[in-house]
Amino acid sequence: MPRRSLRRRVEEAEAILRKTGKPAPEVAVVLGSGLGPVADAVRDPVAVPFTDLPCLPAPTVPGHAGRVLLGRLAERDAVVFQGRVHLYEGHPHAQVIVPVVLARRLGARLLIVTNAAGSVRPDLRPGSFVLLTDHIDLAEADPTGAHDGLLDGPKFTPLNACYAPAWRARARAAAARLGLAVREGVYAMMRGPAYETPAEIRMLRLLGADVVGMSTVPEVIAARNLGLDVLGITTVTNLAAGVEGATPSHEEVAQIARDAGPQLARWLEATLAAESGQ
Ligand code: HPA
What we know:
Blueprint (H helix, E strand, L loop, with lengths): L5 H13 L8 E5 L11 E7 L17 E7 L2 E7 L10 H4 L1 H9 L3 E10 L9 E9 L27 H14 L3 E8 L8 H10 L3 E3 L3 H9 L3 E11 L10 H26 L3
Parallel strand pairs: 1-4, 1-5, 5-9, 6-7, 7-8
Antiparallel strand pairs: 2-3, 3-4, 5-8, 6-9
The protein binds hypoxanthine.
């Protein structure tokens, strides 16, 4: 028997998540490498493993738990993907955007996409946060050309102001209230999974990138196609290859991300609370 289409399996997963009885989420959060502890901030959670959903593969990367949590974040109904699907794992674009499609089908209006990334500039130190203002796709990550019927937006998606200025302003205000120093910057996506060469990092700096990672762009483009607002947050986990002589390692990335998790959770909660006037 031929395997059910991805679209069909997304519909089945939607039904499974609706059966939890949780209210429709207003906000979706995708957690990057090592940022799983942010999930601890979800109140009254129901957790569904990716392996219980027919459309999500078990993560292959340490630091990605592979669970969907439905619960509340700062008094808003939320769906949190603890673990993500990457192009570098060999998954097709359509598979990588499934969490965003699922979130939209469940009712989410805002996607908060987080990631761990390397800094291409020495003044953005490991452990700091960068609010994304824009991105550069060097991984041919645009999913809108081949999406197995998962996207229903325009054939040619405009990507100006991908990262909602209003949500960035709320995030900046929340950071100020918490006394958290955050910067803004441009994210460059490389496909990986090998880290970049020092020459590539020098190139990225010349191109106008501030941080570099291996995710985020497919999800953001899918979200914009589907009409979701997007807030993008990078946790700087390391200096990128060659910056002050650095050699990136996954252990360092996972450790720094884990350490930043509680602070990131507080910031996200404060950002979401700001909108509801709390
Ligand atoms: N390069 C690419 N991806 C990353 C890095 C990096 O230095 N750090 C965390 N994710």
